[in-house]
Automatic annotation (TrEMBL):
It comes from the Bacteria. Coiled coil: none annotated. Residues 7-102 form the SnoaL-like domain. This is Nuclear transport factor 2 family protein. It comes from Janibacter limosus. The lineage of its organism: Bacteria, Bacillati, Actinomycetota, Actinomycetes, Micrococcales.
């Protein structure tokens, strides 16, 4: 599987609500940085996040651009869906991934297109 295919597969799994599949996309000691959350390190923290802490109820990621440079993958797109409080969500995002030799995420940094300053 290529780095691009591995990352695109992650978005398919997360949109399908497949927590086990999503967590399997990450290395055992992976670190995920996401605004508004403490740094998540390891599969247990990722399982807690995707299995319940995440504020998203459902939706889909629309990818506009995926750029690959070896083991590094940058993604730009938007998420369209519903939050757990019932409100609609439409937010642009950028993700920066570093993958290992097995095409599992070692690090992921997410950024969202929301007014901040």
């Amino acid at each position: 599987m290529s780095s691009e295919t591995a990352v695109r597969h992650y978005y398919d799994l997360v949109d399908a609500g497949d927590v086990a599949g999503v967590v399997a996309c990450f290395a055992d000691d992976a670190v995920y940085h996401r605004p508004g959350y403490e740094q998540m390190a390891g599969r247990a923290a990722l399982t807690d996040f995707y299995g319940g802490e995440r504020v998203i109820a459902d939706g889909r990621h629309e990818l506009d651009e995926v750029v690959v440079d070896g083991s590094r993958v940058a993604v730009h797109g938007r998420f369209v869906g519903t939050l757990k409080d019932g409100s609609a969500a439409r937010v642009g995002f950028a993700d920066f991934w570093v993958l290992d030799e097995q095409e599992q995420a070692v690090t992921r940094h997410s950024f969202f297109d929301t007014p901040a300053v």
